Amino acid sequence: MHRHPTAAAVPVLILAFVLAACGQGTAPSSAAATVRATPSASADASASIEPSASADASGDAAEVRVRLDGFAFDPEELTVAAGTKVTFLNTDPATHTVTEGTDGVAADGAFINDELAANQATSHTFDEPGTYHITCLKHPTMNMTITVTG
After folding, report:
1. Cα 32–120–140 angle (5° rounding)?
2. Is pTM beyond 0.70 here?
3. Which among 82, 89, 78 is positioned nearest to 123, based on CA atoms?
């Protein structure tokens, strides 16, 4: 009996394809990010939900995006320059809040306390250097720290 050479190659090609597909994946996101704005074109907030930074041609109007995803802020720690606009985008199906405070408790006189349904966003420009704690009032384990440098 004579085998056709391509018939023997088919199972090998299928196995190679399956192994290649299994090797595909994404690296876990970092829990911390430092953003230094550089001049670039600014993207629409709805165009990307990844944490990112952009600035206008003068380098003055920096923007960073933070996702509320998997019942966590992504990233959980962020360092930005004063004057940076931080946009929070809820990519979870659950409603969350973006509130100054910790462990689900708002700080007295919280400068931000916005409720976000799925796919909603809110922004705040951090003008003053310091350390800011952000929490979700509905989910006390959701916390993040934003450090603003001068």
Report:
1. 55
2. no
3. 89
Q: Is 143 helix (H, G, I), strand (E, B) or coil?
A: strand
Tokens of 26: 């994404």
Taking residue 105's Cβ as centre, other Cβ atoms within 10 Å add up to 11
pLDDT tens series, the chain, 150 aa: 444 444 554 444 344 433 344 444 433 333 444 443 322 233 333 334 344 444 433 445 589 999 999 999 999 999 999 999 999 999 999 999 999 999 999 999 999 999 999 999 999 999 999 999 999 999 999 999 999 999
Strands 77-81 and 143-149: parallel
